[in-house]
Design brief:
The chain has 6 helices and 2 strands; from the N terminus they run H-H-E-E-H-H-H-H. It is elongated. A two-stranded antiparallel ribbon has the order 1-2. A hairpin with a 5-residue loop joins strand 1 and strand 2. 52% of the residues lie in helices and 2% in strands.
């Protein structure tokens, strides 16, 4: 199969309009998810650690290193994943195999759903640790804006990744429009050729309505085997005297 109308994409090798691609809801959600992941990652890396009068840096989220590490991990991997799936969306119409398209869509469904859950955990985890952080742990309110940004954009990421999951599920349910393929394409056999007729007009026998030449009723498609009439035994006539 050449992938016609499979999983929301057109014929393989068809020209992709960049403007139409940029206006797709999936592309907009992908870009927003990329931006939100970048904010979560950069906020914690740049201002998520403070110096408490010593050389050692402490995490602004209740001095819990696991909270900062988790936020950095979710943001960084989400950032890379958005870049990968963005390129996959752009090149999706050039994938000729229906099976490869199905695998790509299933990968997107699984990852998007899983990362939606991880961002939900990130939002709950960071918000809980931030609520336990005392002013004494943040002299001069250091890193407070970064902490709030990481929590806020973790929540926004839940919404965008949920939207990406829904779009991927819709694409998977769309599947392949099998009405575009005939039964010969499905079973792999060559289409049957009509049996040529031995009539003087050289027309082909058919059983479709109307018959040949617009006659009434269906044309008779039965052909007598060759030499049948010539091989018949001659009749003997008794002479009369």
């Amino acid at each position: 199969m050449d992938g016609v109308g499979s999983f929301g994409a057109g014929r393989s090798g068809s020209t992709l309009d960049p403007i139409a691609f940029a206006k797709q809801p999936q592309t907009i959600l992908r870009v927003l998810s990329w931006i939100f992941s970048l904010v979560v990652f950069a906020s914690i890396v740049n201002e998520g650690y403070v110096n408490m009068g010593s050389e050692r840096l402490h995490c602004v989220f209740n001095q819990n290193e696991d909270a900062c590490n988790y936020g950095v991990f979710v943001g960084l991997v989400g950032l890379l994943a958005c870049s990968f799936f963005f390129l996959l969306d752009y090149k999706f119409s050039s994938i000729s195999s229906v099976k490869d398209r199905k695998k790509a869509v299933m990968l997107e469904v699984g990852f998007s759903g899983f990362w939606t859950f991880l961002y939900f955990v990130s939002f709950c985890f960071l918000a809980n640790q931030w609520s336990r952080t005392t002013p004494d742990e943040l002299p001069l309110n250091q890193g407070a804006d970064a902490a709030r940004a990481a929590i806020t954009f973790s929540f926004f990421s839940i919404l965008t990744w949920t939207g990406l999951t829904v779009r991927a599920v819709q694409k998977y349910l769309l599947g392949t429009d099998m009405t575009l393929f005939t039964s010969e394409h499905m079973d792999g056999s060559a289409p049957a050729q009509p049996y040529p007729s031995n009539s003087p007009g050289g027309s082909t026998a058919t059983t479709s309505g109307g018959g040949i030449g617009g006659g009434e009723g269906a044309a008779d498609t039965y052909q007598s085997p060759p030499f049948t009439e010539n091989n018949a035994a001659p009749t003997y006539q008794v002479p009369i005297y």
